[in-house]
Write a structure and sequence with these properties.
The chain has about 130 residues and is mainly α. The chain has a domain of about 90 residues. The chain has four helices and three strands, in the order αββααβα. The protein has a three-stranded mixed beta sheet with strand order 1-2-3, with no helix packed on it. The N and C termini lie far apart (about 60 Å).
């Protein structure tokens, strides 16, 4: 009886561990992505703050553009290490600009979006 209980416990524990490994991957150019973005030739970003935010004063470092949750921008000192950006000036782009301007631009530049991917799906086309 004791062996059955232990086997049942191990089965439950392993299924919980497997469930914890499930994740969702979101990359730049998709809604819901937070992190560094390359503005490149996209339209100029709409910024949260007009001046870059700096935690450590370092000269000669180029500013970066980041899309972060509002709480991260407000308390940047606490969150800058997550983005590896404590030692450089940071411009925070507004969420609306990222989703309505940057995401469509990025997807059109990279050939993504609108169902025109380069996958190997076997979906049926329209007749």
């Amino acid at each position: 009886m004791k062996r059955i209980a232990i086997a049942a416990l191990l089965t439950v524990a392993s299924s919980v561990a497997l469930a914890a490994d499930v994740g969702v991957s979101i990359s730049v150019g998709q809604p819901g992505f937070y992190g560094r973005i390359d503005v490149g030739n996209a339209p100029p970003p709409v910024l949260v703050y007009p001046q870059p935010v700096m935690i450590q004063q370092v000269r000669g470092v180029q500013p970066v553009y980041l899309h972060v949750p509002p709480g991260h921008a407000k308390n940047w000192r606490k969150h800058c290490s997550r983005y590896s950006a404590c030692a450089q000036p940071v411009y925070f782009v507004k969420d609306d600009w990222y989703n309505t301007v940057y995401v469509p631009h990025y997807q059109s530049e990279k050939g993504q979006g609108n169902g025109k991917g380069h996958g190997k799906g076997h979906g049926k086309g329209k007749d």
